Amino acid sequence: MSWPLSAQDGPPPLRDYAIDVWTSRNGLPHNSLRDIAQTPEGHLWFATWEGLVRYNGLDFTVFDRSTKPGLRDNGVGALFVDRAGALWISDSRGNVTRRGTDGRWQVFEHAPGAPEVLIQSMQMDSHGRLWLLYEGQGIGSLGADGTFQYQKPPADVPMAMSFTKLVVDAQDRVWVGTLDGLVVRDNDGVLRRAPESFGLGRGLVWPYRAPDGVMWIVAGERVYRMQDGLPQLQHRLPGVMHITAMLQDRHGDLWLGTENQGLLRLSRHGLERLPNGLSLPGGRVVSLREDAEGSIWVGANGGLYRLRETLFSSFTERDGLSGDYVRTVLEDQDRQLWIGSANGLDRRDAQGRFVPVRLHNSGGKTPSVLSLAQDHDGDLWVGTFGDGVFRLDSHGRTLRIYGTADGLPGGNIRAMSVDRAGAVWAGTQKGVVRIDRSGVHVPDLPGMPGGLITAMTHDADGALWIGTIEGIKVLRGDHVQSIDLAPLGGGRSVFGFQQIGDAMWISSDRGLYRWEDGTLARVGLEQGMPVDTVFQLVPDRVGNVWISSNRGVLRTDMAMLNQVADGRAKRVEVEHYNEIDGMANSQANGSSGPSALLRQDGTFWVVTAGGLSMVDPLRLQRFRERLAPPAVIENVLVDGKPLHWQGSDHNRIPGGRRLSVSYVGLSYLMSERIRYRTRLAGLDNGWIERGQQRSVEFIGLPPGDYTLHVSAAHPGGSWSDSEAVWEFTVEPFLWQRRSVQAIAALLLLAGLVALYRYLINRYKASNIRLARMVDEATRDLQAQTVNLQALNQEKTELADRLAVQAEQFGRQAREDALTGLPNRRAFDEALARDFARSQRSGHPLCLVVLDIDHFKEVNDQHSHSVGDVVLVEVARVIASACRDSDMPARTGGEEFTLLLNDTRLAEAAQVCARLRGLFHDHPDWAGVPGLKVTFSAGLVELDAADRTPMLLYQRADRALYRAKSEGRDRTAIG
Fold it and tell me: What InterPro entries is this protein classified in (predicted)?
């Protein structure tokens, strides 16, 4: 039976999938994966012979007998996620473990009388009973109330040859696969062979229940679907033996794993096998799983594999190209695609096949092709590496070869363009030549370039634009105009031209330039481009601009690009694509042409060092609509020790501790590109973007209630609504507790009352004595006056001491407990104050944000106590380099800031240089011989665009991360 066609917007053919591979070299404890599951929060779980593995897209976490919580046995047999989201794990000794959504583990050890063998499969029926398949020894069930029942099979039922598949259907019947036919436990509780009327035969037969509830049965090379209680043959797959796993994906397509023939798919494209070069290693496919993002996970005997749909399609030698090092691509008038590479020329026919075009140089070898062009007669012109220019007809037959004998300079022909008269202009290593029916002509005009030509095109007015390694020449009639790129950003080498409207866009070694109405504008690294060197800019029909480069393909918006070039916007937002997105190679090729193009069908094609890559811009929207990854908190450390925070509604943290929280966004498509932001309610006023940082640390939080929010986003995508939230309380020190403060106040008041009463009594006694002896009373009165003055002085001193103590309490709330520097709160207040003062007065203000390089390695290699000493010494060095007007602060972990009032950027850079010298000169940090400590810093000066202190801080923070990415131990100026 043929496979019905699905919607045209369904999945692409298998050749447009990328395969990612993980083995024990990448962190898996074992290469054989028996089962795969995904829990509702997004984690993937793998069953191996050496434990249970959790995967978050970046890291594998192993649970086995040595971990806490742990398993009863390392050999995990099966996984099952129930309707409540709990994960069930079986092992090779008959035990079952349940991991609840709150992270709590519950073990159900094998019951007396039950087999102490591997549980191969688990499924749950509508009553909450968990059915268990014991290897070769029957089935069992674990009720929702914890009761257990074991059922030994009759002698005539081949359960001793059971396969790894057990299914519970909608009627709560249990289906079991064996190597000798199908076994069914009907509602009468009896295990028996499937009816002979099913026609399934003996041998390997096993069931599969799809996510939509449909029952499938695999018997040899046949695939059945259960309809009206009977199996109906859907597919016969001759030559496909021993199907071992099945998956019906969200599109309704069937994926089939085999014993030794890899992975197959039944889809609207027919029966598909992985193309050459994408096949899985030999060995059985044991398990299949589709994750929440549509990727297909394959557990095999040789490792873990993931198939994911890619945005780009790529074509290489395995698809018929003569060579993978592709230099140029051209679509002719008949919509044929011509591809030039280091191994010659290919033509792509109407069936999508690549056909080599026979070209031979004087030595009989195939020339390397660098450039292509088509004239008005339909002839194809081919520029080569040292073998001249070939003229071909539309079928690829050679009509003529132009070489040095015809007056063509020797060397490379990297660019060609056809003028209105039909003449072909070719760029050589010694300038430009014009080729027409009469031969080769070298223009003899003042100002024409005489060196290597790297790009050429004719504009709408017929002018010839010539790109060289020293700028641009424009030939208008008999006049040559020079355009020097160097004064604006330092551009020299030109790699491509693209006319859009009245503007000519120029690709160069310093980004993009736009020439419009005699004015040059630039969009480069400083305006948000992620790379300096770009080769070709190509606009599509839906507003995108695609730009090839040595580090992949960039995509941005045409309107945004013009806004930045006009000065109406400061930065351009760019999406970056490479091999992860399906490109054959992230290194696109330049200095040849065309190196990228938009075909008449709207697809964008680009040449690379690893083949030819293509993307349909209309598919881009499907990738943009990908849901933002849910964020989860993975672990919490208090002073470096794990805190068991899951399952508790509220956590109480002693005051003065260092709190570290690690989190992750659960997406498996581009996990390393996920962006994060955090907000600590009770401390932060808003969200703080963390880039790709996957942890946050708080030191010396003031007492109070806090709620940490974590959100994640894909590059260029929106922030996830599925936040990770954790509530906790920081307990006060003894002297900070209100009860202690209230008792102290009462004791003070009682002392004052007692003192007052004592003074009154003394005063009365004095009056009595005064009545007896006036003279003596006078002397006593004078003595009492002196005493009263002394007491008053004591009271004044007591009040002063209380004021000093209050001042100390206030200072401690704004002082870092470890280093003695101002803390984040004090820094934020100073930044807001100095920011406002600088805006009012116009005085300069500079901010330095610095981070200790590789500080985690100090803690890991020398202990946290050594790390604390290093932080104290760092603070002392920073303070010693500061002036009285500067304000250093420790704002968290290994991060410090330096607020420089009335300081220009150049002077602040000198401060950073002096501070770096002090670091380099500091011997044996923390007393550890040979321990060296460096820092990376971001330096910015307040300008008019910094409307708030936070914007100034964010600029410094971005400069800091740039300093880190450029190698650390340096200061980047933002």
Answer: Diguanylate_Cyclase, GGDEF_dom, Ig-like_fold, Nucleotide_cyclase, Reg_prop, Rev_trsase/Diguanyl_cyclase, WD40/YVTN_repeat-like_dom_sf, Y_Y_Y
